[in-house]
Amino acid sequence: MDSSSLIQELEEILKLEEKRIRSSTLASGQMSLIELSRSMDSYFIGANFRNESNKDKDIYSYLDQLYRYGWTQAIRIFFDNSTLQEGVPFYKTNSSFSDWADSVIQACGRLAMAIQIVNFCKRGLAEPVRKEGNDYYIKISPARIRGVESLEREEFNWMTDFFYNTFQKDSYKILKQVIPNISAVMKDKVYVWKDDFMGYDSTPEIDEYFLQVALLKAQKFIGNDSFPGDAKFGDIEFNHLKAAIVALISFSIKHMSFCFKLIEKTPKIRIRNIINNFQTIDYVAESLSLALEIEKEKALKILDLFILDNGNINTHCEDINGAPAPFIRIAKNMIMYSTVGFNSGNPFLFMLKELKKKYPSDWDKAQNQREDVFRKELYQLFPSDHYIKLDRPIIIKTSGKVVSDIDGFIFDKRTGTLGLFQLKWQEPYANSIRERESRKKNFIRKSNSWIEAVLEWTKDKSPNDLAKAFGVGVSELKGLKKIVLFVIGRNSAHFTGNEVPDERVAWGLWPHILRIFSEINLNDKMFFENPILWLYESLKSDSPTLKKIDVKNTEELIFGKYKLIIKLDEWV
Q: At CB < 8 A and 24+ separation, what contacts does 229-235 make?
């Protein structure tokens, strides 16, 4: 059987496995979603408190992956029109419900991993080689560059830690001092309701505490800096959306913390029965309106950007391990907070997808504002007076025809080194192979086109010609000795595949650049002598494409009664 036939067969098997999972549904899709949410939230709350030994690390890592991958698939499979009815069933969970939900999420996690492998095959990143019974042997296609995306994720992790240590540590210390008082008040304000459930009363002090906690949390999310604060989408400023995320996170964290206090006070209460927080859309909008001091109509528009429902489920759940929804519409006029969506996930990523879909023309306008922000942040790394920096893009023409533009221009009058920058700000793509391939093709194609255009445009021009073309005084560039080119990505800059980055250019990820600058020491002679050339050489020598990445040679994935055996090398 050839590879295309094997792919088709695997796709049919995946459909059957999904059908098998769906057939296990509880009384309704609505009730299934409630139990699935209880399991998902309970699992990740528990994950924050476990004390795992080294021998448990692999097991927990695998389970974490199953739940992350399985969550959006489980929602997609069980979401149905029962969520359009009035009201929500009010009941306490039991072991059969919880066992069902846990098993479904894990089964969906294995299904999602299998879908990912089949997507690899369809994109030419892998190839099914043969089949033996229910076992399918798959080889990962050779790639000159592999796994660089994981290294770029580590740069974002570094940036989060750096931001905490540089800007937030003192704020967390201050908040830590008030925890005993807040905790005591919360314990007094929470109570058992109807034997198995929870009620609580908040205070202004409690609300303010969780608002500050949420602010610090939101500041570290990818997407927090997506647009200037005054960028408008309809009548909503991006600053309003950032403030809304802080307020909504504070509501979610507060509810979760009250859950802990009730269990501490009354250990017989089960977290699964109280972690779900159902509210009417009007109530949450009213709370948001008060928190942000805006009209309720605007609060409703903002809230709509955070809700998963029948109209957008494919947008958010068709990709593997996408950003979990902050809210799930569970009834006609009711939504359910997702603890995972607000705490383990990133509400910015969900909201940005909705924003792009609902306000396409405003989105395009706001994207143009990003370049100015990116350029200013780049220039802040070169603050001295001996730099010439242009605060505008430079259009380059050949024979009167526009061939490209240059986003950033930094000239060091001391050294005669000129840095020309292409600044790329693409949306994050999480684990979506489809979105990754789209970002990759766009990034590489446009960057390579830019490189060729700029090199061709500059090669025969004298410093005087360049000065005139750049719109600076001829005397300003008279000391020009060297031109170096940079392609800088805000959220990604390197991709697995056979396309090797053009060596005539320094390729960099924005957090990577920030890390390099943070590690400067007195022994970095080149930095003090020629900072632009230092950055150019540092990005090239510290490129993720040069680093060894440990990848398992063989992996096995079991889903249903089938097994995928995946190997990096050729099967013999």
A: 231/362, 231/365, 231/366, 231/369, 232/362, 232/366, 233/355, 233/358, 233/359, 233/362, 233/363, 233/366, 234/301, 234/359, 234/362, 235/298, 235/301
